[in-house]
Amino acid sequence: MTVNLGPSHPAMHGTVRLIVTLDGETIVEAVPEIGFLHRGFSKSSEHSTWHQVLPYTDRLNYVSPILNNVGYIMGVEKLLGIKDTERSQYLRVLAGEISRITDHLTCIGAIGLELGAFTVFLYAMEARELLWDRISELTGARVTTSWTRVGGVASDLPPGWEQKLRDCLPRVMELTGEVDTLLTRNRIFIDRTRGIGVLSAEEAVDWGFTGPCLRATGVNYDVRKAHPYLVYDRMDFEVPLGASGDTYDRYILRLEEIRQSHRIVLQCLEQMPPGPILIDDWRYALPPKKEVFGSIEGVMAHFKLITEGIQVPPGEVYVYTEGANGELGFHLVSNGKGKPYAIQVRGPGLPILSALPRLIKGHAIADLIPIFDSINMIGGEVEQ
Amino acid sequence: MSQALVDLVRERFPDAKGSSHRGDEVVTVRREQVVDVVALLRNQAEMKLLRQIAAVDLLTFAGESTGGGALASIEVPAYALEKKPRVEPRFQVAYNLYSIVRKQSLRVRVELRSDDLKVPTITPLYRTADWWERYVFDMFGIEFVGHPNLQRLLLYPEFVGYPLRKDYPVRKRQPLVPELDFPDLVRGPGPGPGGAGVPMSQTHVGRQNVDPDAYD
Amino acid sequence: MIETPTARLAFEDFGPAIPPRPAFGRWLAGTIAGWTAFVAFLLFISWLLLAIAALFARLGPIGAAVGNIVGLILILVMVTATLLTMADRKWSALMQDRVGPNRARLSIIPGLRNRPLKGIPHVLADVLKMLFKEDFIPEGAMNNKVLFNLAPLLAFAPAFMLFAIVPVSPEVTFLGQRIQLQVARVDWGILYVFALASLAVFATALAGWTSDNKLALLGGLRASAQLISYEVTLGLTLVGAFIAFGTLRLEEMARLQGMLGPALRSAVVLAARAGDFLVRDDSVLFGWLPSWGFVYQPIGMILFLVAAQAEIKRAPFDTPEGESEIIGYFLEYSGLKSGLFLIAEYAETVVVAGIVTTIFLGGYHLPFIEPTVVRHFDFAWLSVFQVFAFIVKMLFIIWVMFVVRWAFPRFRYDQIMRLGWKMMLPISLFNVALTAGIFLWAGREGLAWMGGIEWLAIIAFVALSARAPRAEEAPHASH
Amino acid sequence: MPRTDLSPGERLYLREAVRGMGVLARHFWKNLFGFRDPAPEVMERKGRGVNLVSTINYPEERKEYPPGYRGMHRLVPRLDGKPRCVACYMCATACPAQCIYIEAGEYEEEAIEKYPVRFEIDELRCIVCGFCVEACPKDAIRMDTGTHAPAVLSRPLAVFDKESLLRGPAVEHSTDVLTYRVPLKTPPR
Q1: Is the residue at C469 inside a domain?
Q2: Which of A25, A116, A186 lies at the smallest CB-CB distance from C315?
Q3: Contact C413 A189 (CB under 8 A)
Q4: Residue B16: pLDDT above 80?
Q5: Do C409 and A117 touch (CB under 8 A)?
Q6: Quick one: which of A197, D35, A185, B155 has its CA closest to C468?
Q7: A384 or D140: whose pLDDT is higher?
Q8: What are the residues of chain C with a beta carbon less than 8 Å away from any beta carbon of chain A?
Q9: What domains are there in chain B, each with its CATH number?
């Protein structure tokens, strides 16, 4: 029996279509079909300045946009060969880890939602709302943040923001703990997830898994630890590892990563030094408004940057950061003009989604749900 | 650090060219060698993770004259394309490889002439190459010889042209695809080759193209 | 809050951002008034049910039956089930830190314009919506149109018929008529429930099959397998109660859980003679424990609740619906037919709660104060309080079932089967054997002791079995 | 990674069932008897009888947007009420969505600078990235209205012209005098 799931089906969050062949309730074969959310990220980017690509990156993984902003801007900075200021590095890590928490909360909530535990979803959403409010205060928008800039970030912490964050983090962790209580040791949940969608470590690497899905199989690969970027080398955190690579491991690993990200956020708040949030180099960063309003040099630099864009020397780099779902890579090519010559993004979800037929083969159709949720496919980054 | 990898490749394939930019090591090999090079890296340098297969169309790389600004360059004017010198080899395919154990990365680059867009597939080596090769095929029209299921990945099969090529007009409109009758799912075989089932014409992954054992 | 100029801009466009905070005193008064009104309403409903039955009873025995049908089935079950659609949403909202539906207004009534009335008009809105939605029959179902239309009726009718044997009040003289709020007093009692409940299988199977939809078919298959499996457990869990009470008749069971009529009467007479204010409730075990069914049958009660939850296909046993995988056996139904399926589920919830109340929670009995009430008022007033008690207990059970529904993830289909056949069936068999043995050995007193010990064991088990220790200590990676 | 076998209590579903129901029941009773707090900020949700309800009944109560929120655009007026904009097209150039349309003109009576004859923003195209604000060399466009773009019933209504965009408090920078070729007729306050 062939059953068509999606692209509009309650389980297929995002827009993906699965053509599933069933034998009874057992999945014999599944063919995923993607592209319903394809928006032409690469082509659009080739017709914008380097700076104008930023809003597009918000819309890749729309659950943790700041991580995409950071990943992309780090690529541009790598092409330019510059580093951003120290405070902005802390800010990027801080906001990035908050975004990581929101992403994991979304994933965990979705697992609960589609397994029938709607309450879990709402608790996770409540916690996510609190964090998105903080993101909104920091960046000016909840999801479409466009917050990073070449050589820094767009805005500093608003007054009183730090205290607000410190106040709402305990509530976030409390709600996370309630999710933990409702799911983690519940036998129904464990029966539904343990031993479901197992992938061995070798196979996971072969399929190109990264992020929580790879670490659930026991492979210790986290870009934050393997190649510490920004100020991750100054942070004290652990990379939780799974053992069996099943859905339960992926779930509990995300739960643990929320706690680790919480640690990083607190450390960032403590260690963050004062200082500028944007480099003072008018070739790359917009001059301060005072100069623009008052000096001819400032206006000229400003106009040149806006009209011509940042002049990035020719070259080709692949830059990789740890996105919420795995290694977020940008393959950037510049031809020395103001626009990116070619951008291709390695959404961590794409290789993981390509393994979905392998993961669900032989399981019941009901198992499709937790497996599909636990790989946390985000339509935006997979389908670009 | 990664220079050792380039040396490893050049030891076996002397005509491979190594280069580096901002710390990214690149080794450019001939098209026929790509499977062997990748296999060598996979087996001897433990580069088990294929991060991405990306491609670049170099058609306007040197000649593009506009600066930044979305307004200024929404479309390459037709006269600019006319006068463009034919850049050959026009396409580059880049395999971004990574070794989790040794924490080394290397990019293997293949250059392709536009009259012969064929690359041997590396799907036997990396399963994740399946979708990346389909992606590159979808966007650039580069054919991966030997790929088990070389279909469009993100776009639909009726799509005309390859959108990430530099000579693809940005404002080109695609023809509307007529909607086909939805076949009766229970009684009577549908129009698709699999009999009653999903309407095949609307999908770009028809069942007929999938080897049941391809995924396991 | 309008301090900054830009905030004034926002105010010009959209009005104040945050309405004034309600005062604590107002909240307190509202809460107290609301709860008082709620209790008064329930008391009124109790009186109304009895009054309707008494009025109809003037028309003779058939009239009495009709009165009970009107009062219990049409008013109690129907209205409760309808309100439960609302309560489910409201209660779940409270559990999930939400507000719940509160948008529908009765705008046609002048005084109620712009008053959400805590969302109660949503019930009306739902009903209207279901009545006026297009009744769509898919093309594939046209061949089996009769069966397709029959399925929702088969789901709906038994759900309401089930309540016929549930006694809501004792036999009492009310407004000069000898009445009992129970539609059918039959010898086979609870067996009627099992017989009718199995009819629901036909509804799901027919709905799944005639819909001509693969997902609905899957749902129908799952439902029929699940319902048939849990019939067995459902029956066996109650056998212990049959042994304890020695009867199949629900009104007998309910009567046995409090003071019997003659004893009550004589106790009241004695107390009146002695001038006591309080009258001792002789049915109370050990001086403090109501002799209700849950005392005799802890395991039976828990298992029955679980099995009943599975039998009425509510979460976590809602795999036949499984809205995120297959949408459910009623996938192709729309309008009123879909509504019948939904309302049947809530009606079944009411029925299950009624049966649990009758068998395990003492039915209509009030613990401790029954003789005192009779001493100071009379039997008619007692019956009003008893109907009130029954409704409150029923609502409590419904609430528990809803908490369960919202707390857990869904089972997988094969895991439900495993739970039913491999866990619940053996335990219920064991319960039957244990109950029978104790009953033969020590009678009902012995069963009460057994029940007490079982309760203690269960509580200790739940409280003391801590989270399993972490066996593999965190293989954290640190570089 | 806590990953262990289940304890007997968990194996029988009972323990976690009771715990899970406990969490829900706690929320239920807290919220039922809770003092519905209209301001959903968790920081303000401390104190007696405060519940945990996080819903905002939207049209009646709204969360105030934070100060830095990128909302609907406005054209900043000068002290004399004319737009600060000098029609330099920077915002239109920087806009990734190309939602700004400008036509420049010159003041006849005042020899100041250029001004926009037409300045239109298509709020449906706008992706609210804030690049126009950053790109403006005159502080003439801002997104600090504290509101979002209102919903409209047809697409043309979402195109806001200069008159509807020109609102809010006037702004005067100390450097502005450098750009006036003759003094303003209305002296600064």
Answers
A1: no
A2: A116
A3: no
A4: no
A5: yes
A6: A185
A7: D140
A8: 92, 95-98, 214-215, 218, 315-316, 318-319, 322-327, 406-415, 467-468, 472, 474-479
A9: 3-163 (3.30.460.80), 178-216 (no CATH)
Domain D74-176: which CATH number of 1.10.340.30, 3.30.300.180, 3.40.630.30, 3.30.70.3270: 3.30.70.3270
β-strands A26-33, A148-149 pairing: unpaired
Q: Which chains form contacts with chain B, at 3 or more CB pairs under 8 Å? A: A, C, D
Q: Do A19 and B205 touch (CB under 8 A)?
A: yes
Q: Which residues of A341-361 are buried (b: 16+ CB within 10 A; e: fewer)?
A: bbbbbbbbbbbbbbbbbbbbb
Q: Which of D88, D91, D93, D129 should be substituted to probe chain B, the one whose Cβ sees the most B Cβ atoms within 10 Å?
A: D93
The answer to whether the complex's ipTM is over 0.85 is no
Phi-psi sector, D49: left (phi>0), alpha (psi -120 to 50), beta: left
| Range among A171-180, B166-175, D30-39 with highest mean pLDDT value | A171-180
Per-domain residue ranges of chain D: 74-176
Contact, A373 vs A116, CB < 8 A?
A: no
- Min distance B210 CA to chain A CA atoms (Å): 8
CA distance B33 to chain C (A): 37
Give the residue from chain B lying closest to D100, CA to CA.
Answer: B71
Exposure of D151 by Cβ count < 10 A (0-12 exposed, 13-18 middle, 19+ buried)?
A: exposed
d(CA C420, CA C402): 21
Does C48 fall in a domain? no
What's the token pair of residue B89? 């080899």
- Touching check for B23 and chain D: CB below 8 Å? no
How far is the alpha carbon of C345 from chain D, nearest alpha carbon, in Å? Answer: 21
pLDDT tens digits, C453-474: 888 888 887 777 655 544 444 4
CA angle B124, B130, B132 (to 5 degrees): 130
Residue ranges in chain A assigned as alpha helix (H): 41-46, 54-58, 65-80, 86-114, 118-139, 161-183, 187-193, 201-206, 211-215, 223-226, 247-271, 289-294, 296-308, 349-354, 356-360, 368-374, 379-383
On chain D, the residues whose CB falls within 8 A of the CB of A253 are 1
Question: B interface mutation test: which of A42, A206, A213, A217 has the most B CBs within 10 A?
Answer: A206
Q: How far apart are CA A247 and CA B56, in angstroms?
A: 37
For B168, name the nearest residue in chain A, comparing CA atoms only. Answer: A43
**Sequence-distant (≥ 6) Cβ neighbours of residue C413 within 8 angstroms:** A25, A364, A366, C222, C225, C226, C319
Q: Which residues of B are less than 8 Å from A384 in CB distance?
A: 154
Cβ-based neighbours of A76, under 8 Å, separated by 6 or more: A50, A150, A310, A312, A332
Regions of chain C short of the pLDDT cut 50: 1, 469-479
**Is the CB of D13 inside 8 Å of chain A's CB atoms?**
yes
Task: State whether D2 and C96 contact (CB < 8 Å).
Answer: no
Counting the structural domains of chain C, the total is 1
Q: What is the mean pLDDT of residues A156-174?
A: 83
Neighbours of B134 (CB within 10 A): 23
pLDDT at D61: 67
Q: Strand order of the sheet with strand A2-5?
A: A2-5, A17-23, A26-33
Instruction: Please tell me the distance from the alpha carbon of residue B81 to that of residue B73, in angstroms, as a whole number.
Output: 13
The pLDDT assigned to B186 comes to 41
Out of A113-127, A325-339, C200-214, C282-296, which region has the weakest mean confidence (pLDDT)? C282-296
Which residue range forms the structural domain that includes residue C150? 136-462
CATH number of the domain at A347, please: 1.10.645.10
CB pairs under 8 A between B and C: 6
Question: What whole-number distance in Å separates Cα of residue C102 and Cα of residue C109?
Answer: 17
Report the domain count for chain A.
1
Interface of B with C in 165-194 (CB under 8 A): 184-187
